[in-house]
Write a structure and sequence with these properties.
Elements (H helix, E strand, L loop, with lengths): L8 H15 L8 E3 L6 E5 L5 E5 L2 H28 L3 H4 L4 H10 L1 H11 L2 H20 L4 H5 L10 H16 L4 H17 L3 H9 L14 H7 L28 H14 L17 E7 L10 E9 L7 E7 L8 E7 L8 E4 L2 E7 L5 E10 L5 E6 L2 E4 L1 E4 L2 E4 L9 E4 L9 E5 L5 E7 L2 E7 L7 H10 L3 H8 L7 E7 L4 E5 L7 H4 L12 E2 L30 E3 L5 E4 L33 H16 L4 H8 L5 H16 L14 H11 L27 H31 L9 H13 L1 H4 L22 H20 L5 H4 L15 E2 L29 E2 L26 E3 L2 E5 L5 E5 L17 H5 L4 E2 L4 H6 L3 E7 L1
Parallel strand pairs: 1-30, 3-6, 10-21
Antiparallel strand pairs: 2-3, 2-30, 4-5, 4-23, 5-26, 5-27, 6-7, 7-8, 8-9, 9-19, 10-11, 10-18, 11-12, 13-16, 14-15, 16-17, 17-18, 19-20, 20-22, 24-25, 27-28, 28-29
Helix pairs in contact: 2-6, 2-8, 5-8, 9-10, 9-12, 13-14, 18-23, 20-21, 20-23
Length: 959
């Protein structure tokens, strides 16, 4: 952090003032007639623009929240429902029609209708009331500025299915994993291996797409042993295997069928630029993540549990969540509902937050609930499938006819939305559904071969029911019961209550595959395209668990990762392997308690959890943990990957003087020596190192000069971040390119895991993979005969030289002016963020608007922030980044929360923007200055405190 100036009361008051100046005008002289409301109610606002809805029933509370959301965020809500429904072109024009076709094919709105049909009367009532509140606002107010800019003067009314489809979209983005890109790569590796004489399957499974994480910290040590022993959580020792299934043999994997491979490649090309679907191609790249940890009262200064949570999603404007406080005095329940937290606009209650009894948080659990299948079709004369072939029998498919409409923008005609007839039957005019795949769609067809996808979210799932019940719960037992309705979009739920309980509960329904239940893998494992003609099906349901939605057999609740009041007194999760089933690089060799393979996911993140776990153990050893400790941990920017990989570079630098690679570069180059000196003394942190940077503890309205220590750490972070990418390119990319696989490289994270593995195992494998490929060959031909250790050292130090050459190049001149002084390489010049608006331009932050945020320069867009690759204060970029703007980031904490379960609880929160989604309004960016410097504001739960902070109020009366 910058040490010279902290964010004082004046600066924070100024930030709050952005919101305050626009709130007072909300006060109504008389009650507003509210069609659909059953009793008098109100929305009061504090100085931050946070609404507190006070209602006589839960349905009336939903009505009021719908009104509040429409007032602040209607364009965002409209955008989300249309994105999910495949009708976005009706809002923003024909440029997104292709995106609509793909989303319509997937069918999230079909799934939302299925959920509506099975929803409880209570949830139906709340969603209908929420819609009435939204529509009451729409009827009496002009559409937002964005609609007007798109030549629209009105908007479609809101419906309960709109709320459900937004929930489906959020779950989809957190849980839908296309197995297609992995299959394309496996097929390419197999073909290249057959041609060049190496083991292509081993290259994929063992060398480049490993399941084993880079760091071995898990959430519930001993859980796997407890499954087989039925003795509870187990010890804190590293997990022993719970019982082994037959080993999976990569060499037994059949070659990918050529037609299947072509259909897969066609689909990848078609959706590669689709911002909703393309991220689902890769399991560990550019995906949603989160952190949470809970420390039990035995380790805290107050004697009460502390929960910290920061979900990582797109950092856009408007910000994803809307803070809201709900007070419902519904007489049908024994106690009022008093709940506060982060609400997704379009839905009625907090999905992250606290009620009067407990707090909860979330991280994404990458449970594998999606299987792609290679299908054989019977086609009609138009080339449309009429049947699939399963075990030699023809089974009919379903056809869903689609109609598309577009907003014709630019002709000066308002509301000119017309039908578009350009989409033919075979390219999106008809969606083909396969009943056996949970009514999943066909994604791609080549000849009579195609790819369908089964996903647990295609059916009548009830996530909004779970949140409704969760907010109403009063203890751990009721909270756990509510989670039984959380069917898809698997989350790791963290829980802490006033009684001192802490708990971790993983949710969602995990389908049981028939071959895995027989204790074998038929063909390929579930994270690749499977044979749709038999042998890889989801088993039909024989056991039914409470609130189960999926019509297939699923893991029992007892088999889902969980921990309640562990003896070690803390729990943490950061999208890591919760129980350790990937630690040996096999995900299909654990046993279920009653038989069959225990399978959860093919891979997880690891570095954030590794840092969090190490820091929590350090703090526990010290004792007396406080909220301030948790704030510092949420702001931690130390690169764990550097801590684990840097010793390899430093060792190479020490050895290199005796090696022949001195002939390719001079290891005594002063830049190399200066960089190594910086890295040796580095604490692995990544401050911005510039005055324009927003570092933890800075006054956001008067940024200070960085200290010498910050400058040194900043330069080290820059050098390491560029070195990391050069190393991956020199080791993995070069090797695969040499064997014809330059177009099928592993993802950034996968490639870096592979590099670390090669370095860690060098003493035994000498840089040679299980495939037989030697990965340390990128040296001049004259030195190809050097010993493997010398070639490794040359590549390590050579990658550092490549990084320094890159930083002093013309391409990076806007940041570093071609300087060769390593202390000039300040991280904040590269590590920047623009909070993008869907319409861009003046709506962005920074952008051409009156808000006090500026780009570093025309060539360096964005705001400088600390952080980087896989740090706790999430702000990652691609590992291979090597361009001036390639180190920018666009996702991170959409909410930072810390709650200490004192009575009353001490609750802090901050979000990256403002409550009001209307550009030009004072509440558009009110929280952003504090978010940028890791400051917080109170999260107000106490109704009396909420009333005391009220600056405006709107009264409503039934009509």
């Amino acid at each position: 952090m910058h040490s010279t100036r902290r964010a004082g009361p004046k600066a924070l008051a100024l930030a709050i003032g952005f919101a305050l100046t626009g709130i007072a005008s909300l006060a109504s002289a008389q009650a507003i007639p509210a069609p659909g409301l059953k009793a008098n109610g109100s929305i009061s606002y504090d100085a931050e623009g946070v609404p507190t809805v006070t209602a006589a029933t839960d349905e009336d509370a939903a009505w009021l929240m719908g009104y509040a959301h429409a007032r602040d965020r209607f364009f965002q809500m409209d955008l989300l429902r249309r994105t999910a429904s495949g009708t976005l072109a009706e809002l923003v024009g024909p440029s997104v029609l292709a995106r609509d076709v793909e989303l319509r094919t997937l069918g999230l709105r079909r799934a939302a209708w299925a959920s509506w049909a099975k929803s409880s009367p209570e949830l139906r009532g709340q969603l209908k009331a929420y819609s009435d509140g939204v529509n009451a606002w729409l009827k009496t107010n002009p559409v937002p500025t964005e609609h007007q800019a798109l030549e629209l003067s009105s908007a479609d009314v809101w419906s309960p299915v709109d709320s459900l489809v937004i929930g489906k979209l959020l779950a989809f983005q957190l849980s839908f994993d296309l197995d297609i890109d992995y299959t394309v790569k496996l097929g390419a590796y197999q073909q290249a291996g057959a041609a060049a004489g190496f083991n292509g399957a081993a290259l994929f499974f063992e060398d480049t797409h490993r399941s084993m994480p880079a760091d071995d910290r898990v959430t519930v040590p001993g859980f796997l042993a407890s499954l087989s022993s039925e003795e509870g959580e187990g010890s804190d020792a590293l997990n022993p295997k719970s019982g082994s299934a037959p080993a999976f043999d990569p060499e037994a994997v059949p070659m990918v069928d050529a037609q299947v491979l072509q259909a897969a490649q066609n689909y990848v090309e078609r959706i590669r630029d689709n911002p909703v679907i393309a991220p689902q191609l890769s399991r560990r790249e550019n995906r949603a993540g989160s952190n949470w940890w809970i420390v039990g009262g035995q380790h805290t200064a107050s004697g009460k549990p502390i929960l910290a949570n920061d979900p990582h999603l797109a950092l856009d404007t408007p910000m994803l969540f809307h803070e809201g406080h709900v007070i419902s005095n519904d007489p049908r329940y024994p106690t009022p509902m008093n709940t506060v937290g982060a609400v997704a606009p379009g839905t009625p209650v907090p999905i992250l937050g606290c009620n009067s009894h407990f707090c909860w948080g979330l991280t994404t659990n990458p449970l594998d609930v999606t299987d792609a299948y290679a299908e054989r079709f019977i086609l009609n004369s138009y080339g449309l499938p009429t049947h699939t072939i399963y075990q030699g029998t023809a089974e009919p498919v379903l056809w869903v006819f689609q109609s598309y409409f577009v907003n014709n923008i630019g002709d000066g005609v308002r509301d000119n939305v017309t039908r578009n007839n350009s989409i033919g039957y075979t390219n999106g005019g008809i969606s083909i559904l396969v009943p056996r795949r949970n009514n999943g769609p066909v994604l791609s067809i080549t000849g009579n071969t195609g790819i369908s996808v089964a996903y647990t979210g295609w059916g009548a799932t009830q996530e909004l029911e779970a949140f409704s019940r969760m907010n109403r719960a009063t203890n751990l037992e009721q909270f756990r019961a509510a989670l039984q309705y959380f069917d898809v979009g698997s989350q790791n739920f963290a829980y802490a209550d006033k009684q001192g309980n802490i708990a971790y509960l993983a949710t969602a329904e995990a389908p049981i595959r028939e071959d895995l239940q027989r204790n074998t893998v038929t063909g390929v494992p579930p994270y690749l395209i499977r044979n749709g003609q038999g042998g890889n099906e989801w088993l039909p349901r024989t056991n039914t668990y409470p609130a189960q939605a999926l019509p297939y057999e699923v893991l029992s609740p007892a088999e889902m990762p969980q921990s309640v009041n562990p003896a070690r007194g803390y729990i943490a999760n950061a999208n890591n392997d919760p129980v350790g089933n990937t630690l040996d690089n096999s995900v299909v060799n654990e046993q279920r308690p009653g038989g069959g393979i225990y399978y959860l996911s093919p891979g997880y993140s690891s570095y954030r959890q590794g840092r969090i776990d190490r820091e929590l153990q350090r703090l526990i050893a010290r004792g007396g943990i406080t909220i301030e400790d948790m704030q510092a941990l949420q702001a931690n920017t130390q690169f764990l990957d550097a801590e684990l990989v840097l010793p390899h570079l430093l060792g190479a630098a020490e050895r290199i003087g005796a090696s022949n690679c001195r002939a390719t570069f001079d290891p005594t180059d002063p830049r190399i020596a200066q960089s190594l000196e910086l890295l040796r003394s580095w604490d692995y942190s990544a401050p911005t190192g510039i005055r324009e940077g927003f570092d933890r503890g800075d006054n956001p309205m008067n940024l200070p000069e960085p200290s010498d220590a910050q400058i040194r750490a900043s330069a080290a972070a820059t050098i390491w971040s560029v070195f990391r990418g050069q190393l991956v390119r020199n080791v993995i990319d070069h090797t695969l390119t040499q064997v014809g696989l330059g177009g099928q490289l592993p993802g950034n994270n996968e490639a870096y895991v592979a590099v670390k593995r090669l370095l860690d195992t060098f003493d035994t494998r000498q840089g040679r993979g299980a495939s037989g490929l030697d990965f340390f060959r990128n040296v001049p031909a004259a030195f190809a005969s050097l010993p493997a250790a010398d070639r490794r050292d040359c590549l390590l130090v050579g990658s550092l030289k490549n990084a320094l050459d890159t930083l002093s190049s013309e391409a990076f001149a806007p940041a570093f002016a071609r300087s060769t002084n390593v202390l000039d390489y300040r991280w904040g010049k590269l590590h920047r963020i623009v909070l993008d608006h869907p319409l861009g331009g003046p709506f962005n932050i920074p952008g051409s608007n009156p808000y006090p945020f500026q780009n570093l320069s025309p060539q360096l867009p964005g705001l400088a922030r600390p952080g980087g690759y896989e740090v706790v204060d999430a702000s990652g970029h691609g590992v291979r980044s090597n361009t001036l703007n390639g180190f920018m980031f666009g996702s991170g904490p959409v909410r930072r929360f810390i709650g200490e379960m004192t009575d009353p609880p001490t609750l802090l929160q901050i979000m990256p923007g403002g409550q009001d989604g209307k550009i030009g309004g004072p509440g558009y960016v009110s929280q952003l200055p504090r978010w940028l410097v890791n400051a917080y504001k109170p999260l107000v739960l106490d109704p009396a405190a909420s009333q005391a902070g009220e600056v405006a109020k709107i009264e409503f009366t039934p009509r």
